[in-house]
Amino acid sequence: MKILTEHIDVPGIETIDVFCKHGGYQAVEKAIKKMTPDEVTEEVKKSGLRGRGGAGFPVGMKWSFLAKPEGIPRYLVCNADESEPGTFKDHYLMWKSPHTLIEGMIVSSFALGANTSYIYVRGELMYVIHILEKAIQEAYDKGYLGKNILGSGYDLDLYVQPGGGAYICGEETALLESLEGKRGNPRIKPPFPAVKGVWQCPTVVNNVESIAATSWIINHGGDAYAAIGVGRSTGTKLISASGHIRKSGVYEIPLGITVEDFIYSDEWCGGIRDGHKLKAVVAGGSSVPILSAEMILNTADGEKRLMTYESLSDGGFATGTMLGSGGFIVMDETTCIVHNTLTFARFYHHESCGQCSPCREGTGWMDKVIYRIEHGKGRKEDIDLLVDVAKKIEGNTICPLGDAAAWPVAAAIRHFRDEFEWHIEHPELAIQPGAVYMRPGASWAQ
Amino acid sequence: MEAKNTIVFPAETLDLVQKIMKRYPEGKHKSAILPILHLAQAEWKWCSPEVMDYVASLLSIAPVEVYEVASFYTMFHLEPVGEHVIEYCRTGPCCLMGGVEVYDHLKKRLGIQTGETTSDGKFTIKEVECLAACGWGPVFQIREKFYMQLTAEKVDQIIDELSK
Fold it and tell me: What Cα–Cα distance (Å) separates residue A353 from each residue in A288, A361, A395, A422?
């Protein structure tokens, strides 16, 4: 079942003519000519579509919070600042099929009553920005953008805004600050963007994949979308698969397949690279808890774990993780968990905006302490120190970057404490190039 | 590369700047800082104080408003850089795919460390965080171009090509 990527490999799909030949812009025709904005919103609510950037908040509900005071413009801003390590699905979708996003932007803007919308793309993807801008021009030329779209009286201008290289701008209020031409410091909420967003006007911020899915929902109905998936995990999800698998790349999966199928089936990742064994997975981007092979394949109750929001988080953080952004990083037995955790800790240290002391100072501490453990200078008390610092960051910051920094460190210690201990107890072995601790009796060590 | 003595965009870039400023509501043209800083860096390689002052004058804002933004976002070079700036991804997924070894080879090949520029001014190496290309790692970027699934051999080819 493919919704977003059905035609992604068709030659020329980045051009509007080929895109339209494969059913493109029918959702715009249908929404604008035959539906009211409220009817569009209603279908999205019915679909059960949840925010695909990581938080998983229902999209239709987010839309319904948008304030609509008379005479004040409203904005839709697409969050294409994709920066969560392990995640590259939005990059892939915009690069291959820009009109999929643009069509969704028009449908969603119409539903929200926005007459100007922005796609905020991370600045490193400048080549993708050029692709989007070319496609937007085509949409203007065909009358899908601009004044009086399809003779309906509805006007919409769509612009692409480049970022400048800052993970924090993926946080929606930081993104809005950045769009206003400022440093990307997250705002204190409330007020929420739905009431006071960009330039203090009501604003909805949605991820690329969420917005792109709305076209299919309008064409086929919210019920048809909700029929895909399991429970509250409806529809399809783009999964960015990386690491030690046979076939890395972006896969569109129906929510509800098993994790085991996703890793081992030839339809998806094709299994672990030759001669190696699965050791651990980070299932939803670097910020979500890492799980060992056993824990990612099965829940604590012994059920096969599914690729859904609920099943991946089953057991809470004690035994579960999160679907997050769908950044699925697979590690085999050659992976040193301490080194991998160091790269994540360094990442969050680098990306903390510095507003909140627990995050600004705490991410630096975690980076430094893991660095010394990895480099054979760890102290016995360091592991508990890391747990303590992570605990003091979590929940004590304006935005979720603090939690995102704390979770991967806390989880690595929770599930791979023996590797940290080994580094501290055997520094002379741990600093050897390629040295990896093998847990006695572990499935990946056999 | 030295910044030019007279810092003024070519006429067609100035037209583009005017267009960009119209993307935002009236009076909100400060939003154009990031797009214009990208144009400025493409023109002059790095964002010198003089370049940032020029951007401020285009937007009729105080220079400090440009400095504080340029210094927040890691893409902007606030020091002179070489002709080709190689920005390699140092984050987890690229490291899993052998990134550390490939980048060590790159540094050895150019004879410089991260943050340095070769004596002929040709290459600068910088390390950056995740470039959203994890499935195709190890990755580095030179200007807008992504170089993916890097190996030591591929790195040599790229450097050879750019050295010509």
Answer: 20, 11, 16, 33
